[in-house]
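Q: What would this chain look like folded?
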Amino acid sequence: MTTTCLLSTQRWVLFGVMLFASCSLVLALKSLPLDGTWELRQSPPSGVEDEAIEYQQIKTGDDFYYRAQVPGYVQLDLHRTREIPGLRVDPFFRDAELSYRWVSTKSGWEYRRTVQLAESFFANQTVVLICEGIDTIANISVNGLQVGRTSNMFRRYIFNVGPALQRGANIIVVRLASHTIHADQRATDHPIWTPVFPFKDHVGNRNFLRKAQCHFGWDWAPPLLPIGIHRSIGFLSMEAAFMKDVTIRDMQKTSPSSSSS
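A: My prediction, written as structure tokens:
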């Protein structure tokens, strides 16, 4: 009975210490979510000189951007504009996905957002950019300085952006490369031929990307190859460290007397 009470007391003390530590860390953290409206434009895909020449109806230029929603996908943003022939129809209607295929097979895309940072945001020692999910191959820059790269749509990325930030206006750019161009290049460079099973209307060497395989076409899925910032993104300012994840395991140990019996 005494042992049970002691263990219970120890657990409550441990819980109190963790709660106090968590509250202290939370008070030291300052978050700035970047979800919402971004700017979006077409960019030259890696390894391809033309910018999807067969789709000249896409507006290009340094000063032109579409409105984009984050989290979201490029295909949905272009569909919402109702400006591009072929992308006005719902991508899941009949074989409309064929009209969307060029979006991520022949072109790269660039997300941009300008955010104002006050002096108080720099009170802590470290500022990181937390990307909960980017689909898939991307270079990320802040004020023209590259701060990170992504290559896996399933994982979270955390980049130290403190040295690139400044008081006042800051420009964040996420430049996405074409899925198929990147995957095809990796397949070409791979020393061993690695075949991929061709489902109906499948696209590209999907086995060379850490991306949902059904996006490239499946027996039940159209090959839409969605591309974009598909989960939340934001800044986090902290004093020194923060708890990213917490896992609690209850370890039960058997006393020597009970194990011998």
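The beta strands are 30-33, 36-43, 66-70, 108-117, 126-131, 138-142, 145-150, 157-160, 168-176, 233-238.
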